[in-house]
Specification:
Immunoglobulin-like, 12 helices, 6 domains, elongated, mainly beta
Length: about 900
């Protein structure tokens, strides 16, 4: 019985315990009243659910983006406290690599069994390129084809950058765009980052013009020294904006967090803002996820499209001839044949409207936008924009010059029958080869020049026999029908197989409007010394002998490239260029006069370059007014060459990177300078003046051309002669000879051809036999050797003195004072050097006497017949530019 009672008690206890576990948890509160000493105990139930927070409720993920589902999720209970660890997550079929919308369910219970539930909606986007920094992502476009900046942002022209994405550029693609498509790379009021090969950020530029880097620290941008990002003081003055002068490490990237135009908090710029403050992003790693490469630059560059105008704006007059494709070219690294197509828009009010035009009419004023397209691959095209403005106004007549003669020209005419002489650029000539009649310029003269205007070929077909002049046959030869084509009656194919040099020109002297004027002019100036009546349309070959060679003759005009020569090398130049602020974008070396360099150039206005750093990593050459080299500064190897140190020393007057510092330019002298870069690869200036390899790396600070003291030739340098170490400026073949005593400012030098052609009856206030009376005449042969001196100054009893090879001590000649040119015969190819008083000033005459007759310079000395120089037989160096 006792055992039964014990078992019964156990069962009752278990039942009581079981019933307790199925009841809500209660809490017990005991209260004791001090006055009565009574204790009261109260019990309450926990019926409150935990607080379950899921923030944010909606999340959007890029394809493949990692995401912790517990991000922003927490649970707090009124009794148990923080119970986040008890949260259960039901993710269903969520996958970050499967685009779609997912509901994530979160549950949590407290110790009292109270349960809370919440959900989060996650949207996984379609697979796309994203940039990820600090776990945050943003849509990205990698190596994009940017739009041209000209007329951007207005319908129908989009902005150059995609304003909804971060743009990322590989180093090689960025460098290519910077060189060839700079008009697309402007980034103003934007954030920019540069990464190294490990995708670590090494440089930051923010929208407010602050730059941060581990190497330099922090600095503020300035328009003068490096870059501009649209600050108040230099807004948009840099054509690259914040992308100017970026030094991108090998295999690095440039990241542009572009401003969307309204500074929206969701813009690409805003995504980059956290990186900028104080350079917070330096050293951070950037991930480029699911990179869709638009331009596969490693294997295929973009085609390069070029138009003639640096600012891509062409202005022409109503009625002026214009060819849409003249000067426009395209090159591609994969194929030699790239076809350009065009779209033409016309400005209507404030909007450009697409037209169906294939050409631009110049019959009336108007403004057009032309887009030139070239295919990159099967999907993408590259294009450039060019604005064409047709303005009212008189069409300016352009002229082609040959010595003192000039003829009016029409540039790139659409028909060879148009008026005037015709000049074609190589690009226009080649582009229209298929549509041009093979009989163009039959019975005419066709001339080919190089880019400097030197004639390299002439085809003369005005009557039989025809003649073909080339460098192999400078005096002409019978045309080869395999070259010219047909030559039968009125079917003369003179334009076939015409090979125009790069940058060269074709000049046509036709017979438009039934006039022989221009073809006759070409015959007279280029092919024969004999005259004939140009009104006679009969064959000139039947009347005259073609006894001149046109090869090497040079035309002048605005189309031809200026140049100087040195050490036998032709160096193209731009003279006193107005583009000095961005000299590194000027293709050819620059030649400045002393006055221009010292008064027009303000180095504080250089674009991207620090004041004082003009021509850094370049070459600066100082020349005197005659073109003599007096100093060379080679900043690539930090060496200077002077008369005292012709082999080169480490500079003493300037520091590395500042080759124009303390530059001393002789009076009326020049500065010749060039930024040695790979952009154009033209190192002829280095080859001519420093090292014949043309390579600064090969030169390594040495020079093997001995340039100091030598003379460059060019139309800007003064003509001169050098004798016995003295250099004298001369005026060559002056047309002012009728008033030689007042209108020729210095010593006169005449070539034999010019001297023999002088009309002595045209002399002003001087008799025909008194030319250069009371003067000193030096007669030179073709090599510059003195063969005769006629001294009309010696005052030897009222007579002059005549110095010859036979009488080197001089002989009295009664005629020399008043008729010094009597019976004067100039050797073939020779010269006459004349010293006279100019406007009563005898200094020039005295200088000549001092150099060629007597070192005292005194022609009234007692010993009147003696020379202490004995110049006859000695050689004068003649420098004619």
């Amino acid at each position: 019985m006792k055992k039964i009672l014990s078992l019964l008690c156990i069962l009752i206890a278990v039942a009581v315990l079981f019933s307790c576990t199925n009841k809500k948890k209660s809490s017990t509160t005991t209260t004791t009243t001090a006055s009565s000493g009574t204790t009261t105990t109260a019990t309450s139930q926990d019926n409150i659910k935990p607080i379950l927070e899921v923030i944010p409720k909606e999340v959007t993920l890029a394809y493949g983006q990692e995401y912790d589902l517990m991000t922003g999720v927490s649970a707090l209970d009124n009794v148990d406290g923080n119970i986040t660890s008890k949260i259960e997550v039901d993710k269903g079929d969520f996958s970050n690599t499967k685009p779609g919308q997912y509901i994530i369910t979160y549950k949590v219970k407290d110790n009292a069994g109270n349960e809370a539930t919440a959900t989060r909606t996650i949207t996984v986007l379609e697979r796309t390129s994203v940039i990820i920094i600090d776990g945050k992502s943003y849509a990205m476009v990698y190596n994009p084809i940017l739009n041209p900046k000209l007329a951007m942002g207005s319908d129908p022209f989009p902005w150059h950058f995609d304003l909804t994405k971060v743009s990322v550029f590989s180093k090689d693609y960025f460098d290519f765009l910077y060189e060839h498509y700079y008009d697309r790379l402007f980034a103003g009021w934007s954030n920019i980052a540069v990464t190294d090969a490990d995708n670590k950020i090494v440089l930051l530029r923010d929208a407010m013009c602050n730059e941060y880097s581990e190497e330099v620290g922090s600095q503020v941008c300035t328009i003068n020294n490096n870059w501009s990002n649209g600050s108040v003081t230099n807004e948009y003055q840099s054509k690259y904006g914040g992308l100017a002068n970026l030094n991108v490490p090998e295999n690095g990237h440039v990241i542009v967090f572009i401003n969307d135009g309204v500074n929206a908090p969701t813009s690409p710029r805003a995504f980059g803002d956290p990186l900028m403050a104080g350079g917070a992003g330096l050293g951070k790693e950037v991930k480029f996820q699911d990179t869709e490469v638009i331009v596969d630059f490693e294997n295929n560059q973009l085609p390069i499209i070029t138009v003639p105008e640096p600012d891509r704006i062409k202005k022409i007059k109503v009625g002026e001839t214009f060819d849409l494709m003249a000067g426009v070219s395209v090159t591609d690294n994969e194929t030699e044949e790239v076809t350009l197509t065009t779209k033409i828009y016309k400005l209507n009010g404030t909007q450009y409207e697409l037209t169906d035009l294939t050409d631009i009419s110049t019959e009336e004023a108007g403004t057009y936008m032309v887009e030139y397209y070239a295919p990159y691959d099967e999907t993408h095209q590259i294009y450039v924009r060019r604005q064409i403005v047709v303005e009212e106004g008189e069409v300016e007549t352009k002229y082609l010059y040959l010595g003192e003669d000039k003829v009016p020209v029409t540039v790139n005419p659409l028909s060879w029958t148009e008026p005037n002489v015709h000049i074609y650029t190589k690009e226009f000539w080649d582009a229209n080869a298929q549509t041009r009649s093979k009989n163009s310029y039959q019975w005419a003269v066709l001339v080919v020049t190089d880019k400097y205007g030197f004639i390299v070929e002439v085809r003369a077909s005005w009557g039989q026999p025809f003649s073909h002049y080339t460098q192999e046959h400078p005096n002409g030869t019978t045309p080869d029908t395999n070259v010219w084509g047909k030559m039968e009656g009125w079917n003369i194919e003179v334009t076939t197989n015409l090979n125009v040099p790069e940058g060269g020109f074709v000049i046509g002297f036709g017979h438009a409007s039934n006039t022989n004027q221009w073809r006759a002019w070409a015959y007279k100036k280029l092919l024969t010394t004999q005259d004939f009546e140009e009104v006679d349309s009969a064959d000139p070959q039947a009347k005259v002998t073609l006894n001149k060679s046109p090869i090497g003759v040079r035309f002048e005009g605005e189309w031809f490239t200026d140049f100087i020569t040195f050490n036998g090398i032709i160096i193209p130049i731009e003279f006193n260029t107005s583009r000095w602020r961005e000299y590194y974008n000027v293709k050819d070396p620059q030649l400045y006069t002393k006055e221009f360099f010292e008064t027009e150039i303000d180095q504080s206005q250089l674009i991207y370059i620090t004041e004082g750093n003009m021509y850094q990593n370049g070459i600066v050459i100082v020349l005197d007014k005659y073109g003599k080299v007096v100093e060379i500064r080679d900043d690539t190897n930090f060496k200077e060459f002077t008369a005292n140190n012709p082999d080169g020393i480490e500079p003493t007057a300037w520091v590395k990177g500042k080759p124009t510092q303390n530059l001393e330019i002789p009076d009326d002298g020049f500065v010749l300078a060039y930024w040695i870069s790979s952009v154009y690869g033209s190192y002829d200036i280095y080859r001519a003046f420093v090292h014949d390899s043309g390579s600064p790396d090969t030169a390594n600070g040495s020079s093997n051309v001995e340039a100091i003291g030598k003379f460059a030739s060019g139309e800007w340098f003064a003509d001169s002669i050098i004798f016995n170490g003295t250099q004298i400026e001369v005026t060559v073949d002056s047309p002012n000879y009728p008033k030689y005593y007042s209108d020729i400012p210095n010593t006169a030098l005449y070539t034999k051809a010019f001297w023999d052609s002088i009309d002595r009856n045209s002399l002003v206030n001087i008799g025909p036999n008194n030319f250069y009376q009371y003067s000193l005449l030096i007669i030179l042969d073709a090599d510059g050797k003195v063969v005769e001196i006629r001294d009309g100054l010696a005052d030897a009893g009222g007579y002059g003195v005549h110095y010859t090879q036979e009488d080197q001590d001089g002989a009295v000649a009664s005629f020399l004072r008043t008729e010094p040119t009597k019976d004067l015969v100039v050797p073939d190819g020779g010269y006459v050097l004349a010293f006279t008083a100019i406007n009563g000033n005898t200094e020039v005459r005295k200088l000549g006497y001092q150099i060629f007759v007597h070192t005292s310079g005194n022609h009234s000395r007692d010993d009147k017949l003696v020379t202490d120089i004995y110049a006859v037989g000695k050689t004068v160096e003649i420098i004619i530019n």
